[in-house]
Amino acid sequence: MAKKKQPTSGVAPASKGQLVAILVVFCVAVAALWGTILGLGLQPQLGLDLRGGTSVTLEPAPGQVIDDEILDQTVAVIRERVDAIGVAEPDVARQAETVLVQLPGVADQEQAIEIVGRTAVLQFRQVLEFIPPEDPDYGEVAPPCDELVPRVQREGPPPADEEVILCEAPPRGADGELPPEETWAQYRLGPVRVEGERVDDASAVIDQLGARGWEVSLQLDSQGAREFAQVTGELACEPQGSPLRRLAIVLDGIVESAPEMNPNVICGTGITGGNATITVGGAEQAARDLALVLRTGALPIQLEVATTSTVSPTLGEASLTAGLQAGLLGLILVALYLIALYRGIGVAAIIELAMFGVIVYGAIIVLGELIGFTLTLAGIAGIIVSIGIAADSSIIYRERYRDEIAAGRTIRTAADVAFRKAWRTNLTGNTVSFLAALVLYVLAVGPVRGFAFTLGMSTLIDTLLFGTFTRSMFGLIARNPKLARSPLVGLHAAVISPTLARDEAPAEPEPAGRQ
What we know:
- This protein is of the alpha+beta class.
- Helix content is 50%, strand content 16%.
- It has a five-stranded antiparallel beta sheet with strand order 5-6-4-9-10.
- Strand 9 (247-251) and strand 10 (254-257) form a beta hairpin.
- The chain starts with 15 loop residues before the first helix and ends in an 11-residue tail after the last helix.
């Protein structure tokens, strides 16, 4: 009668040489990983809650038409601005109809809000009339500037196809502050002649003659250059000294400057080449910030600051320390449990956990360098949870081993069979955990995604570790006669269960004839 073939799990038993080769390759790979990290001096990228910085929540101003496409464009513009500032590992994300901007390492909250939330709608309009504060008509046809400026900032830039009255921002004082708005002059302006979206590039430069201080130099695209040449050519035909010779540069509903056409500009020809200049004054940082928002483009909607918060570096460091202490305490408790339960093979499980931690930390550093992954408190929580997953993998293997020893197998055979059975269980459980982390990452926003990312990454690392390092270490221990017989290692049946021989002994046959 043919012997029935036992079902297999698809994982063939490995020889001692194969286990040694797997272990060596694994250790070399880990050494190469950390050699690269130490050689390049790489460090993990820390998030706002661990490093300190500024967090800003922006919401659309009332009365605007908002949809998903507009919000996605808004996030893209803000992200480009933040990247241009040079903030290390910023986080810009949508949360329903709001935009959360986290800027690690940024202590100047006001500057951050000004740059990320500025609408930056640029317009070139012809001046029709200049109204200084002392003019009798000032405040008659339009509200005075101390009322008009807040309204324009609240409601957004004026329509492009209408005549408007706007205020001119005067030069800043020595302290960098603007004079009171009731002292600002007003302009009556014609419709927009050149849109700000025609700006190809913008850069902060200093006036070569030193008279005007810092300026923002604009480079227009081909269509913008043609429109700019046409309007400046028309203005150059107006009489000298007439307000009609002036071209107002309007940013977010405020007249930044209104220069008069130089007498050298030819009537009908205008300024060619697509170059324009906005005079900022003596403030270098103001010129650089303005050039940045113009270069990255205008926001498609008007935004208001909903909430702001600042995390100090000291608080961030304390949060990091607390997270690391929690992880270390968890490792110590798990290690004590494993030693008490499994003796020497429990120590081997601790080595497996230590290797797990080394690989996870190295992966966080490398991913921070390659894809900009930022470690946050939520990410640390995901790593701490994954410690339980890694410990569970080791426990499953050892419990399967105990079952095989109880079934009467030899130590070596029990180790091989236990791995095959534990591998199936580990793969199933880790697949479920990884899919859960993946779904959470896709559907969640903000810090929750950091938790999901580290949990999913750690689950993949645990699967790899179990199939290589854990398998090789346990298999080699089981193939060593001295270690296999040692009571301290805990592989022998009598050590695992002193009553095993009695409990598993076959029952004596009953005397013949007894029913």
